[in-house]
Amino acid sequence: MLVGVSLLMAACGSSDDGEATTGETGATTAGATMGTEAKPATTTAAAPAAPALPATVTDASKAMVTVTSVERIVTLLGSNTETVYALGLGDNIVGVDVTSQFPPEVTSKPQVGNFSAITPEPVLAQKPTLVIAPALPPTMAALEPVRAAGIPVVFVSEAPEVATAEQRIRLIADAVGLPERGDELIAELSDTLATAVETAGPAAARLRAIYLTYRNNQLSVFGQGSAPYALVRELGAINVVDELGVKTGPMTAEALIAAKPDVIFFPQDVAATLGGVEGFAALPGVSSTPAATSGQLYAVDATMAQSLGPRAGDALAEMVAALATAKPAS
Fold first, then answer.
1. Which ranges in the chain are annotated with CATH 3.40.50.1980?
2. Which residues pair with 58 in a beta bridge?
3. Which of 316, 44, 279, 22 is nearest to 196 (CA)?
4. 9 pairs with which residues across the strands?
5. Torsion, Cα of 255, 260, 261, 266 (10° steps)
6. Residue whose C-alpha is closest to residue 87's, from 161, 167, 157, 177
7. Burial class of residue 203 (count of CB atoms within 10 Å of its CB; 0-12, 13-18, 19+)
8. What is the pTM for the complete model shown?
């Protein structure tokens, strides 16, 4: 049986840990290349604006933080970095963590580690006037010496909900003194999300879907508490992760076969490493799913789908476009 596969293309892909790969990947099946252009990002650049400072916000740690300068910003976590760029302050960023891979020019910035295992010394070495980081207990504890040094640190919620993207924009925009630009980004995001949900319609509710990745010869699932999980749920599809009762982690071939997904989403760069979407389709477990036999395997831009940043609406729109012709197995 021939396996028909669809590949949604974008200019930049990402691994499951946020590290990006640039370039385009084509998928060839049964002698034909099948592809669809992904929707371009709409919120990665902004006209320069003069921040209204000082600005005081209450961050996700419930601390009141006053920001007096945005001349030197260190951002931890890709979605926070992308938000600062979308607000028009990308040039002010002097340090990022390894998960910050979009827009592409961010890869030239000095790296200070990984937000999940950050230490204060590399952050302080960048002499920041502002640090923006995820409100996760290890990160908050590690950055306490930075706050103690008198540097404003704004912690941003990482709640696994699509609404987190709007909350992120609101907090960061207010903190850097650009609330009006924040309003614009939130309006764009809200419109894109609403259009995507409307386009998905009731047909999506009949589809069994899951978001997987593949690293080191191991399938893994993005489950409850992850951005991809939140996006699949926003689609209105049946997220088979709920039936499996698993969180993000390894996925056995047997469990995947038992889940019987009609649709599988996975990162574009995984398709690239496997020689195309057909390589993913041939993986043990994947090959025995309704998604593979019906050609409903969709490689998506992981820099959007695995991060609830300003492009969360674009990520959802990309997934909705993939479902335009998808059908349930029964």
1. 6-40+201-325, 55-177
2. 64
3. 316
4. 37
5. 40
6. 177
7. middle
8. 0.83
> What tokens were used for 270?
């995984």
Cα separations in angstroms, 93 against 36, 44, 90, 106, 108 = 34, 14, 5, 9, 11
Beta-carbon contacts of residue 64 (< 8 Å; ≥ 6 apart): 56, 57, 58
- How many residues does the structure list for the chain? 330
pLDDT tens digits for 265-315?
999 999 999 999 999 999 999 999 999 999 999 999 999 999 899 999 999
Q: What's the CATH number of domain 55-177, 3.40.50.1950, 3.10.450.40, 3.30.70.20, 3.40.50.1980?
A: 3.40.50.1980
Run of H or E including 13: strand 12-14
Residue that the structure tokens 């991809």 belong to: 228
Distance CA 288, CA 283 (A): 9
Closest CA to 102 of 74, 80, 117, 87: 80
d(CA 78, CA 103): 9
**Residues 305 and 318: beta-carbon distance below 8 Å:** yes
Radius of gyration in angstroms for the set of CA atoms belonging to the chain, rounded to a whole number: 20
Specify whether the CB–CB gap between 180 and 49 falls below 8 A: yes
| CATH class entry, domain 6-40+201-325 | alpha beta
DSSP β-ladder status, 218-221 and 249-250: antiparallel
Q: Are 306 and 316 in contact (CB under 8 A)?
A: no
Lowest mean pLDDT among 25-34, 59-68, 266-275: 25-34
| Contact call for residues 113 and 102 (beta carbons, < 8 A) | no
